[in-house]
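Field reference: sequence -> structure
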Amino acid sequence: MNQDISSLSRQELEDEIRHLRAGHPSSRESRDRLVIAEDALVRSESRYRAIFEAIDDGFCIIEFIDGPEGPLSDYVHIEANSGYERHTGISGIIGKRLREIEPDNAGQWLDLYGGVLASGQAIRFEQHFVAVNRYIEVSASRMEPASLRQVSVLFRDITARRRAEAALRESEEIAREAVQRVQMALAAGAIIGTWLWDVPANRFTVDEAFARAFGLDPALGRSGLSLEQVIETVHPDDKAGLATAIGNALVQGGTYAHQYRTRRADGNYYWLEANGRVELSPEGKPTSFPGVLLDIEARRAVEAERDRAAAALRSLNDTLEQRVSERTAELMRAEEQLRHSQKMEAVGQLTGGLAHDFNNLLAGISGSLELMQTRLAQGRIADLDRYLTAAQGAAKRAAGLTQRLLAFSRRQTLDPKPAALNRLVSGMQDLITRSVGPMIAVETALAGGLWATFVDTGQLENALLNLCLNARDAMPEGGKLTIETANRWFDERAARQRGLAPGQYVSLCVSDTGTGMSSDVIERAFDPFFTTKPIGQGTGLGLSMVHGFAGQSGGTARIYSEVGKGTMICIYLPRHVGEAGHEEEEETDTATAEPAAGSASILVVDDDPLVRMVAVEILQELGYRVLEAGDGPSAMRILNTGQPIDLLITDVGLPGGMNGRQLADAVRVSRPELRVLFITGYAENAVLNHGHLEHGMQVMTKPFLSDAFGRRVRDLLGK
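Structure field:
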């Protein structure tokens, strides 16, 4: 306990933190040591992860564990870098056991890596990962000391090399086939004749095979032919090329080779190749030009076939990128259709649950109103209070349901302020203890030096109470409920796992010793209207409201649970740089006498006539002088008359091209001290500057009770 934290290794830090947490530290020394140890572990983890993620190849560490099948009958993935998923196509591997992800092939991998663990001998092999269509070179070695029972595995992508080798083998095979065909053609009697050209005398003598091939008189061939007679049978399209080739050979001397078509004895044109050598005199003049004729018709056919194949291959390569792009587009489309289908399914679930709950509430309201109407017609007023109370109760539940929906959709109206979570938890501890009942022990573990956060404290209190009540319901036989706060510093990997940006956060966690959740329940727990409670005992919006509120506040919420071992739900909120503020009373201008209720003038602006009528009548009942308008331009006309207005009450969403915030800003140009109360049905955060209102401005959410409305008006007017 007295060992210096800075001298501890990463493993020792983890052991120290587990030890301190298991003891639920209550002394200041223990709590401070836990905070220091966690901070040291975070820094160590950051350095470790930076090195770990620097490896471009995939990398993971597995640890063998004992299972129901026997000792070392399974292993769990305890570490993995981002390259692991890229190379294998397997995501979220950390914490998963082999038998979870490969139940059918577990024996194969256990034998493979188990041999490495037992012998200490590293292995290397190649594996085709079908999910990503890649060939991976896998290298595995035992981590020391052997008592760790850990094996490190490196995954290196060799797909490009394998494909290049395959392409090379294919190319070599094509070349071999072409050579074989040429050799076969030559072996089948490709030499069709010989010649000797006496250049100065321009006299060609040819053998009998040459003469027969071209339908010439063998006697004439022996006595001699002129160059013109020899090239008479050349294809008209090839004569110019042949003449150029011969001319170059006569000038340069040495070897000569040229291909062209000639008309044979059967009247058809065939490809041949003339091979010869020009002998030059000491003066550089051509003297003799002997050579042979080769029949290359078959070879040309092979070459043409090869050229066609090469052209086809080039075309294939040229269009490969286009085809890949088209295929990819068919897939980034199929995926969009799937997401749309999932979205529609979620919308269907949401609207179905919403319709169910609101229909119940509307039935209670309309039924109570009809009964009141009937009793009034009958002159029986004794039961009116009961029906009125029932209708009001249903209306309040409908308002609460709407607020939960807005929280889930991250559209509720928030009033964030710098807040200290430790102070908030301490202030709610008595309420939470009474709410969960005597069978549940409530404990707190509040971190020393806790950072401030910027949050709507009222909504956070609702979220905390909601989590505590859920924990109570998960412990029907009693148990222990723990509320913890902590500073969190998430690096890129830790933040990505929680769906956050890297940085500093404050956590508020509620844990219980209850029944726990299965993995499929955890996956759906934040979905709207999903509940495991019996019908009528829960709306299924509690956790979705918590998740939506946390997201709207710039953070998130996460569930950690195991069946039979309890649940912990954590809210992560961004750190606020600065001290947490205290609630301050609204400043009043003592130099100016505040108007009495009877003399105060209020302008109510709302495009809904019914809402406007209710607001006006509530204010008139309280003794205020009230003016009203249905949109921004109408309100401006009233204000421009110069009559005194002490308070502007305006809906945020107004028609006519001027919303409530624009109206207030325009009025305050000439009346900077005018108090403003914004009324909104949902969070137009962009309009309200994300909750940052100027002095003398407040916001209130519809629907509202008349007494709450009256109190807010009195607060703004200072009366």
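Note: Residues 429 and 442 are 8 Å apart (CA to CA).
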